[in-house]
Every structure is written in structure tokens, then in C-alpha cells.
Amino acid sequence: MFRNVRHMIYDLIEWRSQILSGTLPQDELKELKKKVTAKIDYGNRILDLDLVVRDEDGNILDPEQTSTISLFRAHEIASKQVEERLQEEKSQKQNIDINRQAKFAATPSFALFVNLKNVVCKIGEDAEVLMSLYDPLELKFISENYLVRWSSCGLPKDIDRLHNLRAVFTDLGSKDLKREKISFVCQIVRVGRMELRDNNTRKLTSGLRRPFGVAGNALC
């Protein structure tokens, strides 16, 4: 709603400048004024404000000098024009959605590119970072995991891959794009001792995989 009103205000500011410039011929000036009043009436309608009744030239009708029947007929005409505009925009939006779905259906597959910059998480030990795509409605993962082994020093275990941690989730077909929701999920698994504060050498363990954290972001 905010974006729609903002675009309308920008249009009205531009048209007002053209009207005040005094350079437009009378016929163009008349058409521009009709366009301005139509835009104002349309904006009032989508904002649930009162409909202003106007004459053929776009001037506001004076209820003191206009009969009740004339006001009623003018109100009917204005309401019909605004409703036609709303229906036209609704139809255009539906056509855009249909064309978009048809385009997706015609495309065999899509891909999602992921570039891991950093893991800002105080773990204290080595960790495994797993990234995958998840369908929250079906409660299941729809892709394989992209695995990055992260050291306790805050750097990748494979230091040669520093600043080059990239992956591509491929073969996302039209079926995946038609899902109502798809989330990008990141899981962190701590690899090390059973307890971080385990200082007893007799109980010291290593190499155990323990869930540490999870985060997700909705893609659609």
C-alpha cells in the first residue's frame, strides 16, 4: 500500500509541475487535469477515503448549486469508473502471475548459489556447518547438505578454501518453485568433548558430534 501511494504521489507531483508550467496546449491541459482527478479518486478509493464528486471537466461539484439527483448520478459514474480501474489492475496482476507461472513451468531447472563469508558463532571447539533447503510445510529437507568444516580458531579447517566457500544447489525444477514455502537452513554441529568444561583427563572425550545451533531464512 505504501509503495502504491508513493508512486501515485510522485505522478501527481510531476503532473502538477506540468500544469503550473503554462506551456501545455488547452486540449492537453484538459486531458492532464482529467488524469490528475482520476488518479486522486483512485487513491482515495484504495485508502478507503470519501469519493469526491466531480463534473465532466474534473471540477468538484458544489452541493449548494447542484441538485440531489445530479449529485447521485455523478457519484454513480465516478464509483463505476474507479471500480473499473480496480478490476483492470486486478486482471493485469492475474495475467502477470499466470505468465510468470508459465515461464517457470517452461524452464527445466533452476539453481541457488550460496557464498559463505563467515561463521560468527562462539563455539570453543571444531564444528561442522551444514546448509540445505527445507520445506517447512512438508517438514522435510529437499536438498543435500553443503558441509563446511570449521575450526575452533574461527577459520575453515581447509585453509586453502578461505574466502572461497561456495556451493550451488542445482536441479530445482518447477515442482520446487511451486512449493508454498522454502527455507534455507544452516545447522551447526560441535565436534569435540562431551562437555566443554570437562577438565578431568580420565573422562576426557574427543570427536563427539553434538548439535549446537540452527538458523533458517525463508526464501519464498
Question: Which key phrases capture this entry?
Answer:
220 residues, single chain, two-stranded antiparallel ribbon, alpha+beta, elongated, 5-stranded antiparallel β-sheet, Substrate Binding Domain Of Dnak, Chain:A, Domain 2, 4 helices, 7 strands, DOCK_N_sub1, DOCK_N, small GTPase binding
Description:
Residues 72-99 form a coiled coil. One of its GO terms (biological process) is small GTPase-mediated signal transduction. This is DOCK1 protein. This protein has 2 domains: 1-105, Substrate Binding Domain Of Dnak, Chain:A, Domain 2, CATH 1.20.1270; 110-218, no CATH class. α1 (2-21) packs antiparallel against α2 and α2 packs across α3 (68-106). The strands form 2 sheets. Strands 2, 3, 4, 6 and 7 form a 5-stranded antiparallel β-sheet that branches. The chain has a two-stranded antiparallel sheet with strand order 1-5. The relative contact order is 0.10. It has helices spanning 2-21, 26-46, 68-106, 174-177; strands at residues 110-116, 126-135, 140-141, 146-150, 165-172, 183-192, 208-218. By secondary structure, it is α+β, with helices and mostly antiparallel strands. 38% of the residues lie in helices and 24% in strands. The protein has 4 helices and 7 strands. It is elongated, with a radius of gyration of 31 Å. A hairpin with a 4-residue loop joins β2 (126-135) and β3.
